[in-house]
Amino acid sequence: MKPQIKLLVLAITGTVLAALLATTASAANEAKASAAKVAMQKFHKAPKDVDPTCKKISEGKASKEELEQVLAAYRVMAAEKPVKGDEASWKEKCAALIKATESLVSGKPDGVTQYKAAVNCKGCHSVHKPAPPAK
Ligand code: HEC
Fold first, then answer.
1. Does residue 2 carry a pLDDT above 80?
2. Which residue, of 31, 114, 116, 121, has the greatest Cβ tally within 10 A?
3. 69 C-alpha to center of ligand 1: Å?
4. HSE-up of 34 (CA within 13 Å, CB side)?
5. Residue 11 has pLDDT above 80, yes or no
6. How far is the CA of 96 from the centre of ligand 1 (A)?
7. Sign of the dihedral through C-alpha 65, 67, 71, 77
């Protein structure tokens, strides 16, 4: 192989490797969604015509199993640093969700009222949900 060709081959291999590495890195970033995002997608959001779990809870219709799953997700979310906003405020909001869900699991009569107050979407999003990336 001529030295020039050898260099060219090396350069191409390098570019391909760099591109591969970049793809792997961004895939790893995407895979690490915040616990809040996971909890939202799993329990606060649902396909059209299906009630999200949080709605069932607010209507007092969630099963004990569902309540326990949500509770576990809120606990993971609470243990994580907020993706945005003040940590003390985040802890307080998550603690309210956890407390209300615990009340529901143990069958306290005011559980639904507590939950509805704690699951205030806008109240939490306005301080802790990052703005969507500009398009
Ligand atoms: C205690 C705080 C809190 C409450 C209450 C809350 N959210 Fe969220 N929500 C978040 C945070 C934080 C994010 C952003 C997560 C991220 O981008 O990593 C989020 C993001 C979302 C998303 C976007 C998920 C995605 O795919 O990026 C949806 C949908 C959502 N919330 C629905 C709801 C609904 C519906 C309610 C009310 C019933 C609600 N949330 C109540 C904190 C909360």
1. no
2. 114
3. 17
4. 15
5. no
6. 15
7. positive
